[in-house]
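SEQUENCE AND FOLD
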Amino acid sequence: MSEIEQGRSKEELGGVTLLGNQGTQYPTTYAPEVLESFVNKHPGRDYRVKFNCPEFTSLCPMTGQPDFATIYIAYIPDELMVESKSLKLYLFSFRNHGDFHEDCMNIILNDLVALMQPKFIEVWGKFTPRGGISIDPYCNWGRPGTKYEQMAEYRMMNLDLYPEKIDNR
């Protein structure tokens, strides 16, 4: 089936090259360049897209031990959206990357903001315990000067008012 038959013109698909590519190479080091975007067909409507990534791994920068997490990425798109296979490869690129949990979540947020310029985005890591303690870093971003900036502030201030059930540990 061609791209146009699938409901997307070549212009809308832009630089999407990984989807459907059977020869995909998995990156072995941090690789933000693998992220790809496509045109949002509904930019005038606010809606939320959420990715649940239960197999995230990175390395502790001090010990080199692996850290495991479920990563939640939710955003309100504007003109562009992240292509899911490229996101999967991008998250995989952290496998041999040594950074603290908090740094990884902020790097992911920054890279996705740079790629898409969404209206709002949040990234939440729920790491499995190591040494008897788990770390759940949360970061978000709302477009400055808009209601989405206020939404980000509100979300940050009220994040733990209604604690979620943690089911990945």
Summary: The beta strands are 37-39, 49-59, 66-76, 80-82, 120-127, 138-142. The helical segments are 10-13, 84-92, 101-116, 147-158.
